[in-house]
Amino acid sequence: MKDPRTIILQPVITEKSMYLKEKNNQVTFWVHPDANKIEIKKAVEELFNVKVEKVQTIRVKGKPKRIYRFEGRRPVRKKAIVRLAPGQTIEFFETV
Asked: For 4-94, which CATH superfamily applies?
């Protein structure tokens, strides 16, 4: 298995992710693009000592960007929405 710290890159802190946390006990992370749902579940359980019920993944395509005459694209990223078991919380999201 890969190191959990290479699978979970960073939390997503947006209005929508905070709404999901309050309403459905779901937390959102940016994850490695090659990670699958099983690896994400194991990484979250190991890093934060919580029980995970379900993992949903979303592949976010990179937007085209242009600076003067140079064109390029932002990288493709992957987002994971993780549903925690009832009564489980991650302290990092409680302080935000």
From this structure: RRM (RNA recognition motif) domain (3.30.70.330)
Q: Write out pLDDT tens, residues 20-38.
A: 999 999 999 999 999 999 9
- For 67, the enclosing helix (H) or strand (E) is strand 64-67
**Taking the complete model, does pTM exceed 0.90, yes or no?**
no
Separation between Cα atoms, residue 28 and residue 43, nearest integer Å: 13
Q: Which amino acid is at 6?
A: T
φ and ψ at residue 92, rounded to 5 degrees: -60, -40
**Nearest-angstrom CA–CA distance, 77 and 38:** 18
